[in-house]
Specification:
heterodimer; A: 687 residues; alpha/beta; four-stranded mixed β-sheet; 24 helices; B: 255 residues; Rossmann fold; 8 helices; 10 strands; 27% strand
Chain lengths: 687, 255
């Protein structure tokens, strides 16, 4: 009998809380699909870093299990509250508390299992889509084959069970504490509107707004970790206090009978919203926090994705590039290795030179946006002691300025298919990374280089073609000088660039790296000598670069950031918007009554529909807009930094816009589903 | 005779082809301006259905209902709600106050929906609050006040627009005897002092004795009518009880 009852109740819950079921299905599907990346054997053969993805997804899973457990716990308590009368009646009929509690738990487990099965089916399809996307991102081809991986299944089941265990454990004590009358009256209690100290609480509204405004102004200028932590704590407080403030402010406004109250349906709308926010203020705060995190996660995800698509290709213009700290190196071993696979490749071996000074390094450190005023004296002149200290200690730039001869430069340009350049005897070309081109041009390179040729050299042109400047052809920059200036320079290190006639073999990079190990076994990165310049966030500096091998490897590495963040973002948005929707739908009965009264007061059906739309729009938009306001500054700041440090050509606001679009498309789906069923529940057959 | 509201051969059927229930069966009567009419009958006699038809909440199966020259059975959905807004006021047994609004705001809402000006809303609100003696509790929420006070607030909301007809469905049903008496006296005052036209449905003889005329309904038909005329309320009550005892039931409900 009990199992029959719980089965029937489960069916009813599934119908009443369809949105919840929908979300749990989506969560299981996402879990299965993303977990499958951990147990993905096909990629393991391609990449060394295959464990990285597993670790990152594992970390994401921890957050997701916690948040899904929160959702389940919230829903279990919520449904319990809504059905308290029914449970009271069970007790009244003589059922033991233990039996009722077991009945309820069984219902929840049944509902959960149902969602799990549905989710699994969806997940198997989603997994194929995800793998196809992933392979496409890596530039590999993928053959669709639907299969159920037992390990993925096990892990998904364990995660899911973990969520339930966490959630139900916290609910267990709930029944023990309840009395029959408590259960019967539980619903009546939360209808009372508690209003206390409203004028005092009202202050939180302007305070939150001012705090957010200050946050927008100051966030970029925070200097130490302490200040940032303080600000973040403030933000958390603001997220929660904002809602206390909003409802108090609205209540006071209505009490004071402001002008707006007398217009149309405003009175109803204000009061409705104020009372909803008042009863849900804590939940609203948590939802805002979730939305904020989701927006940030997806924005960062979009940033790295953009990097993959726009910058990465230009990072490795040559098919193979080899560095040697030994200036006498003729690269014979490397030639042999490459020659095993490739017969008619073109190659060029050359030197990077130095004059043993750091005039150009000094200019770079005082003029690039990345360094700001770090290496300037208060009057704007270079702070030489600091600059020398930095160049000696850090491997950002080579210790001395890096030069290239025009003949080498043109040979390399020919290999890359660029047009050749010419120089007068008193001129030099400043070759920089593409992302620095605009910046350097704007700064105006007035630097005259003396002591290299008979006359001081002046800058003829600043060039920003992709030129492998992450340590190979200089770090960030190269000064290209006429061959006649060789007298004033000495070789700094040796380089070889190769363009292959076909594709590089998958193992070429490993084989070349193996040579280095044999030659000098102390390090792959000779101490302080391979320097990658001012790139930040994503840098890849290595002695040997084989483009065909590296691009998928770096993409894979980036995907292990992009994919888990995206995963977190999606789940967080779904969880949060589910809570919003379920709250709204479960109040249908209450709203039905209110709208019936409005109907009796003579409000037409069309007017009521518009009012429902207005009321729901405000309800859905409020936490979303606050989350956008809060995350906006952080995301914009991060993406500005990202653009400066990695050189993606995208406008910094774009990532934020993209995630808002993604966010609102998920939001819209839930909104429409909720609106349709809410309207049906509320209006039904009321004329 | 000043025929204000005319109900002509109104029928209302429920159910399907195999099983039809005649809730209201060819009922005709008129209500004059400023009259206080009661409709009495046992449970299931069709009195609430009749009220819903008058209230435009439900539609007739056949027949016509005229408010002066408007036939509301001919109006369309949107016109009906407009009509309701301008001409009718409701008082129900379960108060139908919005729990999220204070008493004063519940009354204000009815006015703001009419698109009235701020000054006008404030004046009318103040007036009706005072008239019904709930001025002192205007800022309380419905859950904070007694049933009688709630019902008086519902009354105030219904009356604040000066409707052509005030419809009351068992308004004293949920009230204790003292509150019920106060409310009925309020109805009486609204009727005599403001000249409100009231139609009240009740199965309680005591409540009915405050009316000027009573229609008795049984199985969807009017089977008797009583007019108070110059009689005292006590005499009228006795007459009502006599009618009820004739019908054989509902006597226990009378006290």
């Amino acid at each position: 009998m009990l199992s029959k009852l719980s089965l029937r109740n489960m069916k009813r819950s599934a119908r009443d809380y369809m949105i919840y079921l929908l979300t749990m299905t989506i969560v299981v599907a996402l879990m299965y699909a993303f977990n499958s990346l951990i147990f993905q054997n096909e990629l393991a053969s391609y990449f060394e870093l295959v464990d990285l993805m597993a670790v990152m997804i594992g970390m994401a899973t921890v957050f997701i299990v916690l948040i899904v457990a929160w959702l389940i716990n919230y829903m279990v308590r919520f449904i319990l509250e809504k059905r308290s009368r029914e449970f009271g009646i069970y007790l009244l009929l003589g059922m033991k508390k233990k039996t009722v509690s077991r009945l309820y738990m069984r219902e929840n487990v049944l509902l959960g299992s149902f969602a799990f099965l549905l989710g699994l089916l969806t997940g198997i399809l989603l997994q194929q889509a995800l793998l196809a996307i992933m392979f496409a991102m890596l530039g590999l081809s993928y053959q669709l084959h639907i299969s159920l991986n037992p390990w993925t299944l096990l892990m998904t089941a364990l995660c899911y069970m973990g969520c339930y265990l966490l959630a139900l454990l916290r609910c267990k004590g709930k029944f023990r504490k309840m009395s029959i009358s408590g259960l019967m009256n539980a619903q009546r209690q939360n209808q009372e509107i508690k209003e206390k100290h409203e004028p005092a609480k009202r202050i939180f509204f302007p305070v939150s707004i001012v705090f957010i405004a200050l946050f927008w102004i100051w966030f970029g200028h925070l200097e130490n970790a302490g200040e940032i932590v303080l600000f973040l704590l403030g933000l958390v407080a603001v997220i929660y206090l904002f809602y206390v403030g909003v409802s108090a402010w609205l209540i006071c406004y209505v009490r004071k009978k402001g002008e707006g109250v007398y217009r149309g349906q405003n009175l109803f709308l204000f009061r409705q919203f104020a009372s909803k926010v008042r009863t849900m203020q804590f939940t609203f705060g948590t939802l805002t926090a979730l939305f904020t995190l989701a927006l940030m996660g997806t924005s960062i995800s979009f940033m790295f994705n953009d990097y993959e698509n726009t910058v990465l290709q230009g990072k490795f213009p040559f098919d193979v590039q080899v560095y040697s700290s030994d200036v006498a190196d003729d690269f014979a071993d490397e030639r042999t290795v490459i020659g095993q696979y490739e017969q008619d490749d073109t190659y060029h071996t050359y030197h990077i030179y130095t004059d043993g000074k750091n005039r150009v390094n000094g200019w770079i450190l005082t003029h690039l946006e990345a360094w700001g005023t770090m290496y300037q004296n208060p009057d704007g002149t270079p702070d030489w002691p600091e600059i020398e200290k930095m160049l000696g200690e850090r491997i950002t730039y080579y210790q001395y300025d890096t030069y290239m001869l025009l003949s080498d430069y043109n040979a390399l340009r020919r290999m890359l298919g660029y047009e050749e350049k010419a120089l007068g005897p008193d001129e030099y070309i400043f070759q920089v990374k593409p992302r620095l081109l605009a910046e350097v041009r704007e700064a105006g390179l007035e630097l005259k280089l003396e002591g290299l040729a008979q006359e001081p050299l002046a800058c003829k042109e600043i060039v920003g073609d992709p030129f492998s400047q992450d340590g190979h052809n200089g770090a960030d920059y190269l000064v290209v000088v006429p061959d006649a200036a060789l007298a004033g320079l000495k070789p700094y290190y040796a380089e070889m660039a190769v363009q292959l006639s076909g594709k590089a073999s998958p193992g070429l990079q490993k084989e070349l790296d193996g040579l280095v190990q044999e030659e000098d076994d102390f390090s792959l990165y000779p101490s302080g000598e391979l320097c990658s310049g001012s790139d930040n966030i994503v840098t890849y500096a290595a002695v040997n670069l084989v483009r065909e091998n590296l691009i998928p490897e770096v993409k894979y590495m980036l995907s292990s950031i992009v994919i888990p963040l995206f995963y977190i973002g999606l789940v967080f948005v779904c969880v949060a918007v589910t809570v919003l929707s379920v709250q709204q739908l479960s109040d249908s009965a209450k709203y039905r009554f209110r709208y019936e009264v409005l109907s009796k007061l003579g409000m037409g059906k069309g007017e009521r529909s518009r009012l429902i739309l207005k009321q729901m729009a405000v309800y859905y938009l409020c936490p979303a807009i606050l989350a956008i306001l809060i995350s906006g500054k952080m995301i914009l700041y991060m993406s500005e930094q990202f653009v400066v440090m990695t050189g993606v050509p995208t406008a910094s606001g774009w990532f934020f816009l993209e995630s808002i679009l993604l966010f609102f498309s998920i939001y819209l789906v839930y909104f429409v589903v909720t609106y349709v069923s809410f309207k049906r529940n509320v209006q039904g057959d009321v004329p | 005779m000043n025929e204000y509201i005319r109900i002509c051969d109104v029928e209302k059927y429920y159910g399907n082809a195999s099983h039809v229930t005649k809730a209201v069966d060819r009922v005709s009567f008129t209500v004059d301006r400023g009259e206080f009419v009661g409709v009495m009958g046992a449970s299931g006699s069709g009195k609430t259905t009749l009220l819903n038809l008058l209230a435009t909440i439900d539609r007739v199966t056949a027949g016509h209902i005229f408010y002066e020259n408007t036939d509301i059975t001919e109006l369309r959905e949107n016109d009906l709600s407009e009509f309701r807004k301008k001409n009718l006021g409701f008082v129900f047994q379960e108060y139908n106050l919005l729990d999220i609004l204070t008493l004063e705001e519940n009354i204000m809402l009815a006015l703001t929906l009419q698109g009235e000006k701020k000054k006008e809303i404030q004046r009318k609100c103040q007036e009706i609050l005072e008239l019904l003696g709930i001025d002192g509790i205007r800022n309380q929420y419905p859950y904070q006040v007694s049933g009688g006070q709630k019902q008086r607030c519902a009354c105030a909301r219904a009356m604040v627009n000066r409707p052509k007809l005030l419809l009351a469905d068992e308004p004293t049903g949920a009230l204790d005897s003292h509150s019920a008496q106060t409310l009925l006296e309020t109805f009486g005052r609204l009727n005599t002092e403001v000249g409100a036209t009231i139609l009240m449905v009740t199965h309680d003889a005591f409540s009915a004795s405050y009316c000027g005329r009573i229609l008795f309904l049984k199985d969807g038909k009017i089977f008797h009518e009583l007019v108070r005329g110059e009689k005292s309320r006590r005499q009228f009550l006795q007459e009502i009880l006599d009618v009820l005892s004739l019908t054989g039931g509902e006597l226990t409900d009378a006290f």
